[in-house]
Design goal:
The complex is a heterodimer of chains A (about 240) and B (about 400). Chain A contains 10 helices and 6 strands, in the order ββαβααβαααααβαβα. With about 240 residues, chain A is of the alpha/beta class. In chain A, strands 1-6-5-2-3-4 form a 6-stranded mixed sheet, sandwiched between helices. Chain A is globular, with a radius of gyration of 17 Å. Chain A starts with a strand and ends in an 11-residue tail after the last helix. In chain B, the strands form 3 sheets. A 6-stranded mixed sheet of chain B has the order 1-2-3-9-6-4. Chain B is of the alpha+beta class and about 400 residues long. Chain B is globular. In chain B, α11 packs across α13 and α13 packs across α15. Chain B has 15 helices and 11 strands. Classes of the chains: A alpha/beta (about 240), B alpha+beta (about 400). The interface between A and B is medium-sized, with 23 and 23 residues.
Chain lengths: ~240, ~400
């Protein structure tokens, strides 16, 4: 019921898959997370799932929520993504399943993530294309969180940390997860991946890094997104 | 670790950390079952690890164990780190050690360091003002705990403005246990180059009432050698930054996790020093300390440590020794014991222990007085501890207020 569309078909492999879960998209409900993991896990040698860390709260703060409330919602959203993912891996017989469901915050324990994040921040400050992609994605997320309200450059300055913190997962999956080749799987293409993949920015993907968009053949998710209750953070799409 | 499982020896260092910075289970096992325990260090050498407070105190005060590791080929944690720097106070044995220490000891006494409280409070206030104006939530390390030692200690140590940027590039040193010997040597070389520039700058433009000045004067007067001066400036710079970031981070972390005790401190400011002592006891700022070498055969608990063998100590084991600390796993600011044991024992007892205390007292009290509702922005279980850091701490501490 799922499809996997590789950004470059010739780069497809079965080594390692990294699944990004979003707290801001209504599709990531427990049943969807379970189905997705059940579909992906047998197709790859190893699997990891990543969930945004505290940076997710920035999108709500930028949208006007008080910080303490934003943090509370982000923590709840984290649990709502984390628990079904761990359960799915456990039911699939993956040893030590909790170790394979990681928040961006926990990734800071890894020197490779810290170094990659530092490069990503530098790229945001110095590369026009990366900066534009980060800000465009941030504006969309904050706009959704603000329920169509206006988004100012100041709002984007606050929330762009969220998008930047994800960049290492798009460029350095192989070293972060000790794999020769790693594919980052998300539910839609993003301008950031496009900017990294076409080699026109100063951010370079590590050898073995690839990307794919996962689709669902049966469900009509466009409608689902508009009408469904989002996981915890009230943003309809990202 | 279950009592019934015997780990394979030698233990491989670094050990998996304990939850939330508690004593690593392997260290606790060794303290219980193998008080003189062989441990394979990342460099490949095997050292004896002592974990009981009485054994450690005896060894640290025993001149048969040498700190002099400057010779090439000496046992290292990973590679040519700060223990390879010639004639640094850290690497000297008595009586040379005492002669160099005498030059600095007046500056670091309990009474002498009190005058630096306003300077530390000023830097804390400035950083906290910036934090209040910045994003919320925020990583407290980025906003406060990494910057404060660089700014406050940088001023106290007399870093000239033209070297401030280089100081920030060099420190904190990563002291990464997963690093290669080449990378460690490179990091040490970069710090040596910085110190050479600093020494030249302070010779040209002396700044009295700093440890660097005291060392330069002692060198000029022939009390210590040029090499002892350089090595010791190198050492006090390493210890001014890296080892402070760890307790500045773990201190607020554990106080936020023990809200009732934090509230007691906020209601009665005379409790902040007690809280700092318990932070120092609960978390040593690192895992294993650097090796010492036995100069002759010495017996501990029925095991003979042979001449030439390396010996290492995890100071956190000392302050978690249940023979001396009741329920050591409980964080309790009202303990009768203090954190002194974390600073070592014998002639190499930490010279900066009193300065570290006032930095922590000023910094932690200022933080919570400014942000009394400060709280973790993620679950404590999510905090990213890196077992490969020499000075162990979470690498990010997201907070909100």
């Amino acid at each position: 019921m799922f499809t996997l569309e590789w950004l470059a078909e010739r780069s497809s492999h079965h080594d390692h898959v990294l699944v990004g879960l979003s707290p801001q998209n209504g599709r990531y409900k427990p049943e969807y997370i379970r189905s997705l993991i059940f579909w992906l896990q047998p197709r790859f040698r190893s699997i990891d799932v990543v969930i945004p860390g505290f940076e997710a709260a920035y999108t709500l703060v930028a949208a006007g929520h008080p910080p303490a409330q934003a943090v509370h919602r982000a923590r709840r959203a984290y649990r709502q993504l984390h628990n079904p993912a761990v359960r799915a891996l456990s039911d699939l017989g993956v040893p030590d399943p909790a170790r394979h469901v990681t928040s961006w915050t926990r990734l800071h324990a890894n020197a490779a993530y810290r170094a990659s994040l530092s490069r990503s921040r530098k790229a945001y400050l110095t590369d026009r294309r990366i900066r534009a992609a980060c800000r465009a994605m941030t504006a969309e997320v904050v706009g959704n969180a603000a329920d169509g309200g206006s988004v100012t450059p100041c709002d984007i300055d606050i929330a762009v940390r969220y998008v930047i913190a994800e960049i290492p997962l798009l460029t350095d999956g192989p070293s972060l997860f000790e794999a020769d080749r790693s594919v980052f799987v998300y539910h839609r293409p993003t301008p950031l991946v496009a900017a990294i993949a076409d080699g026109s920015s100063i951010l370079r993907a590590a050898p073995g890094q690839t990307w794919a968009v996962v689709g669902q053949e049966e469900a009509n998710h466009g409608e689902h997104d508009r009408t469904g209750t989002p996981a915890a953070i009230p943003v309809s799409a990202r | 670790m279950a009592n019934t499982i015997e780990p394979e020896l030698p233990l491989q260092y670094p050990f998996p950390l304990g939850d939330g910075g508690a004593l690593p289970p392997l260290t606790a096992w060794a303290q219980r079952a193998k008080p003189v325990c062989p441990v394979r260090l990342p460099s490949g050498i095997t050292a004896w690890m002592l974990t009981r407070k009485d054994d450690v105190a005896r060894m640290l005060a025993d001149n048969r164990f040498s700190r002099d590791l400057a010779e090439p080929g000496s046992p290292r944690m990973v590679g040519e780190d700060l223990t390879s720097v010639d004639d640094a106070i850290f690497n000297l044995d008595p009586p040379r050690h005492g002669r160099v220490r005498q030059v600095l000891s007046g500056w670091f006494t309990r009474r002498a360091v009190q005058r630096h409280r306003p300077l530390i409070a000023r830097h804390a206030r400035r950083l906290l003002d910036a934090m209040a104006d910045g994003p919320n939530p925020v990583d407290l390390i980025e906003a406060y705990t990494a910057g404060l030692p660089l700014d406050a200690m940088g001023e106290l140590m007399g870093v000239p403005p033209e070297l401030a940027d280089e100081c920030r590039r060099v420190y904190p040193m990563s002291l990464d246990l997963s690093s290669t010997p080449d990378a460690v040597a490179k990091e040490t070389d970069a710090a040596k180059q910085f110190i050479a520039k600093l020494v030249a700058a302070r010779r040209a433009d002396p700044l009295p009432d700093t440890p660097v000045h005291a060392l330069l004067e002692a060198s000029r007067q022939g009390v210590i050698t040029e090499s002892e001066m350089f090595g010791t400036v190198f050492l006090i710079f390493v210890t001014s930054f890296d080892p402070l970031v760890a307790p500045l981070t773990t201190g607020p972390m554990i106080l936020m996790a023990h809200r009732r005790q934090l509230d007691e401190c906020l209601a009665d400011s005379s409790l902040w020093p007690k809280a700092v002592e318990e932070v120092l006891r609960y978390f040593h700022n690192g895992g294993l300390g650097f090796p010492r070498i036995a100069r002759e055969d010495v017996e501990f608990d029925g095991t003979v440590i042979r001449r030439g063998d390396a010996v290492v100590v995890p100071m956190q084991a000392v302050t978690w020794d249940p023979r001396h600390y009741r329920n050591p796993e409980k964080f309790n600011i009202h303990r009768a014991t203090d954190g002194s044991a974390t600073f070592g024992a014998g002639p190499h007892y930490c010279l900066g222990s009193q300065l570290a205390r006032i930095v922590l007292q000023e910094a932690i009290s200022a933080l919570f007085q400014r942000f009394p509702t400060l709280d973790l922005a993620v679950s404590e279980r999510e905090l990213p501890w890196d077992p490969n850091r020499m000075f162990t701490r979470p690498m990010q501490l997201p907070v909100t207020w």
